[in-house]
Design a protein that fits this description.
The structure holds two protein chains of two kinds. Chain A is mainly α. Chain A has seven helices and no strands. Chain B starts with a helix and ends with a helix. The chains are: A mainly alpha, B mainly alpha.
Chain lengths: 132, 243
């Protein structure tokens, strides 16, 4: 447990350092995530203890957003004055974003699958599996 | 124990981080029980319930947010390691990811632009202030990115944090329903869409449904974080919105 926490913290730290050094417009933990993913790909397998600890931590991801959410208390005044534009932008904007993202991804996957089928018919070698 | 002893105990406890850390975990446990009692219904969102309970408590006890956060920061801190840990489910889906990375990048770009433009347009149309429009623009990205972008383009980072959490709750509540309406059953598409539109809270919801959906939601969240950091300042500049 301590080892896995240490591993996660080390990769977060690596991410933070990389962001500072390279001026990447990304948060340290996101870079740390890609660094850990790269390490796992190079190593070819994960650690069982890491898998177990990550599963536990991620199953309680909701908990970690509670402190930031309670911060709404700081903005009651603005929210009271601008509740209609803010609430509509949040609800409608999020619904539209979700729908358009899901729709465009499934269309793009169809395009890719068609493309790969036509390459197959042409007798080309295709790597990677087709998606429908 | 008389009243003044009780008062001293309260003063002591409310000054120590222990009380508000414990209350945060307690509110989460209560919210989880209610979520389970509802049969895992998306409307009984654990984050929304716990935040509601804690706000009621802080208002009743006249506690300010800074005092609360002194205890709650220990939970907040774990967001970093948890984000790093998203690499593990992602690694489990690597072979699938290799096959679909190009469509995914395209959809994430479309999603991030839609998120920023729709929020700005709606707020502007309904008379929202420029500060609010700018604070809304990065709302679909994960909190640290969204707050950084908000600061860079002239929004209010702490307002953005609240808008980000609310966006996450809305995405977690409506995501499954929207995909059902669109007839989208592919777990990877559902996961990525919920992650792009509603970051970590959407991802938390996806993990409640299945680890595979959670992995793709985590991927959508990470890619949308990067894309938001790159594109939203550019979009705002193109639109000519200045605070």
């Amino acid at each position: 447990m301590i080892n896995t926490l240490l591993l996660l913290l080390v990769f977060e730290l690596v991410g933070e350092v990389l962001v500072r050094v390279t001026d990447l417009p990304l948060p340290g933990p996101v870079v740390g995530m890609f660094a850990l993913l790269g390490t796992l790909m190079l190593r070819g397998r994960s650690w069982p203890e890491l898998d177990a600890a990550a599963t536990t931590l991620l199953s309680h991801l909701s908990l970690l957003f509670i402190p930031a959410g309670v911060g709404v208390i700081l903005h009651f005044q603005r929210l009271g004055a601008e509740w209609l534009p803010l609430l509509t932008a949040l609800v409608l904007g999020t619904v539209v974003t979700l729908a358009i993202t899901a729709w465009s991804l499934s269309r793009l996957l169809q395009v890719q699958a068609r493309h790969q089928r036509s390459k197959l018919r042409a007798g080309w070698v295709v790597t990677g599996e087709g998606q429908s | 124990m008389n009243d003044s002893e009780l008062f001293e105990l309260w003063v002591y406890l409310s000054e120590s981080p222990l009380l508000h850390l414990t209350l945060t975990l307690l509110a989460y446990q209560v919210a989880r029980s209610l979520h389970r009692l509802s049969g895992g219904h998306p409307l009984a969102n654990p984050v929304a319930i716990a935040v509601g309970l804690l706000i009621a408590l802080l208002l009743m006890t006249d506690t300010d947010y800074a005092t609360y956060f002194e205890g709650a920061q220990f939970v907040h801190f774990l967001l970093g390691p948890a984000t790093v840990a998203l690499a593990i489910p992602l690694y489990g889906q690597l072979s699938k990811l290799r096959a679909i990375w190009l469509p995914v990048m395209g959809a994430v770009t479309v999603g991030v632009c839609t998120a920023a433009l729709s929020a700005i347009a709606i707020a502007k149309l309904l008379g929202g202030s420029v500060i609010s429009q700018l604070s809304l623009a990065p709302k679909s990205a994960t909190a640290p990115v969204a707050m950084g972008v908000s600061d860079a383009i002239g929004g209010l980072p702490s307002l953005t944090a609240v808008l980000v959490v609310t966006t996450g709750i809305i995405g977690a509540v409506t995501g499954g329903w929207i995909c059902d309406r669109l007839g989208i059953r592919d777990t990877s598409v559902r996961g990525i869409a919920i992650g792009v539109a509603s970051h970590g809270i959407g991802t938390a919801r996806a993990f409640q449904i299945s680890p595979e959906m959670g992995a793709f939601a985590g991927l959508g969240m990470a890619l949308s974080a990067g894309m938001t950091a790159l594109l939203v300042p550019l979009l705002v500049k193109l639109l000519g919105i200045v605070a």
